[in-house]
Amino acid sequence: MEAKASKSKKRVLLPTWAADIVYFDDLEIERGQYANFKAEEMKKYDLVATGEGNFAFTEFATHRDSMYATLKILEMMLNNDVKLSDIINSIPSFYYHTSKAPCTQSLKGKMMRMFLEDAKDKESSTLDGVKIWLDKNDWILMIPNQYNDHLNLYIQAENDEKGEAILAEYTAKIKKWSNT
Predict the structure, then answer these.
(1) Span 69-100, pLDDT tens digits
(2) 139: part of which helix (H) or strand (E)?
(3) Quick one: 10 and 84 in the same domain?
(4) Domain check: are 151 and 166 in the same one?
(5) Is the domain of 156 the same as that of 120?
(6) Same domain for 61 and 21
(7) Distance between CA atoms of 30 and 73, rounded to whole angstroms?
(8) Which residue segment(s) compose the domain that 49 sits in?
């Protein structure tokens, strides 16, 4: 809202697992790993956020602050005469789901290799696990949990039917790959 009103671009950093189906003309959104930041790096962005509601408005501080974020969002809404219901109604409906697939520590390397093999001939990224785009808006991201015996799965799709199909397909693949 602020970027549009001031006819400027705001820089935003989101993690690799954040939904990317909604586009904003006035934001330069970079996606990357959401860990181990130095203050100088964070100050390159106007906002560092997750898809789960953690916000760091770097004009105030280089760490997440829920009270400041709440007040900042309310201020932007008031300054731009926008209602919360208008914001909610402007967001298109899509499927976004996180899931955990059981996987022992000893199989996590194999799962990375199998996901990379599955990604051949598809657009993919290994920035933070293995992310595979199945088409323009549908993707799955697998990040091995470094502390527990499971894989973290993040799925985005244009609708529930496609999203559930992606989840079922890759859950079945993980089970198959675990047993071979």
Answers:
(1) 889 989 999 999 999 999 889 888 999 999 99
(2) strand 139-144
(3) yes
(4) yes
(5) yes
(6) yes
(7) 21
(8) 2-90
